[in-house]
Write a structure and sequence with these properties.
alpha+beta; FAD/NAD(P)-binding domain; six-stranded mixed β-sheet
Length: 344
């Protein structure tokens, strides 16, 4: 089967490697330069372990990361690791067309998608395919061009994150605040990463108190993070964001399938999105191997397998529960960020 994968990140590279192990030669299109990626704190969830073990990279990633909630059998709930290490390992041996962007979809007279129009360094190219797989993130252009619906739900709170070059002794900690918000961090051998919920106020207000005040307030609420957060030197190291949850009623239409963040995006408390996306790739690769001459049958099987695994996680997401009206008390003054003004 001819498969075009739009997106050469963790999920797209995983799918490409798994398909190649099943005898296919997918085309991977990635808009970034070779070796370029967004540096971020990264927690690899257990949902991905089976796929990564098949790809031969799990043991190495475990060796270069730190186990979160280790289990008696030697496994763990997750692994904190520098994300570039995993991307590098997944990319080994995978032909990727870098600096390529999908700008359109090809269709037959019935409307079925039969490939993509891609823009690259050498101009525009038509690539014919039996299936186009969207791995291009929660704002997926391929999903929109295919006409698949996406339901976005803005989170009630904002989030502020930090990433420090200083690791901590503790690997992971998270706790809920009195208003239902959350604060947490994790650490890998080369650094640490933390996040907390806060009122939606915009970046300028979020960083106005300064980096020292932010670090002390964060460490007071989560003392295990102190070494990491106190390693920050500038508010440039703080990232303020206002996120959405994403769910898609349908994950495929004839000729196009959605996996990973193009199909679903969970709130930060789950810590599961990356692992679930890689597990999506594993399920789709197996479905395509079972139905090598029928992409529609493969996509139907994929949906039947994945819906019972993913839909409950979407429904139980704590962020979604808060949006649906769960009663929330006021935050204590010491838990608020930015700090309340005097007399407020």
């Amino acid at each position: 089967m001819r498969v075009v994968i739009a997106g050469g990140g963790l999920v797209g590279l995983s799918l490409a490697g798994l398909l190649r192990r099943r005898g296919a030669e997918p085309v991977v299109l990635e808009r970034m330069e070779p070796g370029e990626y967004v540096r971020r704190g990264f927690m690899l969830g257990h949902h991905s372990y089976e796929a990564l073990e098949e790809l031969g990279v799990l043991a190495g990633i475990r060796a270069r990361g730190r186990a979160i909630a280790p289990t008696p059998d030697g496994s763990s709930a997750a692994v904190a690791v520098e994300v570039g290490r995993l991307l590098h390992r997944l990319a080994e041996g995978i032909p990727v067309r870098y600096r390529h962007t999908v700008t359109g979809l090809l269709r037959d007279p019935s409307g079925r998608v039969t490939g993509v129009i891609a823009e690259g360094p050498d101009g525009t190219e038509e690539l014919h395919a039996d299936l186009v797989v969207a791995c291009d993130g929660m704002r997926s252009r391929v999903r929109g061009m295919a006409g698949l619906a996406a339901e976005f739900m803005p989170l009630a709170e904002a989030k502020i994150e930090w990433m420090s070059p200083v690791p901590t002794e503790e690997v992971f900690s998270m706790k809920y605040l009195s208003d239902g918000g959350h604060i947490g961090f994790f650490s890998w051998p080369e650094g640490s990463f933390g996040w907390r919920s806060m009122d939606r106020c915009g970046r300028e207000a979020a960083v106005a108190p300064g980096i020292a005040a932010f670090a002390e307030a964060f460490a007071a609420l989560l003392p295990e993070s102190a070494d990491g957060v106190r390693g920050l030197v500038s508010t440039d190291e703080l990232h303020y964001g206002e996120q959405d949850l994403l769910t898609c009623p349908e994950w495929w239409t004839p000729g196009v399938a959605l996996i990973g963040d193009a199909a679903h995006f969970l709130g930060p408390e789950t810590g599961a999105s990356a692992g679930i996306g890689i597990a999506d790739a594993h399920a789709l690769a197996q479905a395509l191997a079972m139905f090598p001459a029928d992409a529609d049958a493969a996509c139907a099987a994929y949906t039947a397998w994945r819906a019972p695994a993913v839909r409950p996680l979407e429904a139980m997401d704590p962020s979604r529960s808060r949006l649906l009206g769960a009663p929330i008390p006021e935050a204590r003054p010491e838990e608020r960020w930015p700090p309340p003004a005097a007399g407020a």
